[in-house]
Write a structure and sequence with these properties.
Largest sheet: 5 strands, mixed
Distance between the termini: 44 Å
CATH topology of the largest domain: Chitinase A, domain 3
Strand content: 15-25%
Length: 153
């Protein structure tokens, strides 16, 4: 498995997926209907998805607190045309904190920011051909972002 195949997820998401997997692997108590076959096929697919997510996340490491935008970092960016500021987790959908927006590294914004450092301006294409410029304000490891937010004025 290539390093690029690794994904980062929060400890809470990992535990939630493990609980969901255990529930899905439990033997169903109902039997005898045609719906059970469809339900089992859906369960089997979800089990496969969870196994894949957990195995890819197993080899991922928490990012260093070095200010570089990478998966597992909570990023604050300023949209240069409006001055709006947005804070989000750079990660994988379905593997993060439900209270924090997530952008993946394959999204246009995520792809533009990977490797950026605070103060660096990045741009990415918008639908319709326009280009959006953003400036990375901060990149903090997930978990440390809550401490940083609670100590700021």
């Amino acid at each position: 498995m290539d390093v690029s195949d690794h994904i980062w997820m929060t400890p809470q998401a990992r535990e939630s997926l493990k609980r969901e997997l255990a529930a899905l692997l439990a033997v169903p108590r109902t039997a005898g209907t045609d719906d059970i076959v469809d339900a089992w096929l859906a369960r089997k697919e979800r089990i496969r998805e969870i196994h894949e997510l957990l195995s890819r996340a197993e080899r991922a490491v928490d990012p260093a607190d070095d200010g570089i935008a990478e998966p597992g970092m909570v990023l604050s960016v300023r949209f240069d045309d409006t001055g709006d500021i947005e804070t989000f987790l750079l990660g994988s959908r379905g593997t993060a904190d439900p209270d924090l927006d997530v952008y993946t590294v394959s999204s246009p914004l995520g792809r533009a920011l990977v490797g950026a450092t605070p103060g660096q301006q990045c741009s990415y294409p918008l639908p319709g051909g326009r280009v959006q410029s953003v400036t990375l304000l901060s990149a903090t490891p997930y978990g440390a972002h809550a401490v940083a937010a609670s100590t700021s004025p």
